[in-house]
Amino acid sequence: MNPGDENLLKAISNDTLLDLTQRYGQSAFGFGAGHGAAGSPGRYPLTPAADFLSSQTAKSNESGGEQTSDDDDGFDLESRKRGSAFDDDDKHGGPLAKKPKEQRSLRLSINARERRRMHDLNDALDGLRSVIPYAHSPSVRKLSKIATLLLAKNYILMQAQALEEMRRLVSYLNQGQTINSPIPAALAPFGQAAVYPFSGSTLATCAEKCSTTYSGTPSSLFKHCNDKP
DNA sequence: TAGGCCATCTGGTCCT
DNA sequence: AGGACCAGATGGCCTA
């Protein structure tokens, strides 16, 4: 188990949330611009040839059009280097190879755009994984996409609850009470354990953290949280 | 070997 | 018209 996990929630402050917001902003407004650095070709193994079973003529193919994207060439080149579907399609005469050169070029351009879009999406998911509390040790498998999204959602809800508690506490202290005063009954349901639910026990496992954070989530989604305490 | 997860291709739809 | 987005299909890899 990653020893730093216990304090991770403590360490994640509003600054981190601000950072997350900024990252999201960069991703939203710089979509594609940062792809060259983060999305270097070759990070994702290209699958071998697809079967191209569906040979229906696409509506977009009917419209034709010239290939103008030069990044398509880049992805196409990478794909060819790896012996991807495009190679097989050429060698074995797949449906795509039977289409007019113009339509084939357009289809490759569309494929490249879609591939890049999915890579950007995966980059964003990686960024999300990097800021949510779970064991980031090499021995623990990376969170799946769905698990990442659900964990992030619950983490946001937890942070919102903690923020609300802090506001209540500040409001209470501003009413002339000292910091040494016992927490009033009205605030009891929002005790410190609610703020940092995982900080009290050094024996808390990743699975325990996940199960706490994953309230209402099928247990099968955090089966990868298998690090040992 | 079955099931989960993933990358990719593909065709369709919507938006600018 | 071109690009973004989406969902379905398909096949590969990995694990229990």
Q: What is the strand and helix layout of this fold?
A:
Blueprint: H1 8-11, H2 14-29, H3 35-38, H4 59-63, H5 71-81, H6 85-92, H7 95-98, H8 101-131, H9 145-173, H10 192-195, H11 206-213
The protein binds a DNA duplex (16 and 16 nucleotides) through helix 4 and helix 8.
Structure commentary:
Helix content is 54%, strand content 0%. By secondary structure, the chain is mostly helical. Helix 2 (14-29) runs antiparallel to helix 8 and helix 5 packs across helix 8. The longest helix has 31 residues, at 101-131.
Average pLDDT metric: 53
- Outline: elongated
Structural class: mainly alpha
Number of helices: 11
Brief sketch in words of this structure:
It is built from 11 helices and no strands. It is mainly alpha-helical and 229 residues long. The structure holds a DNA duplex (16 and 16 nucleotides).
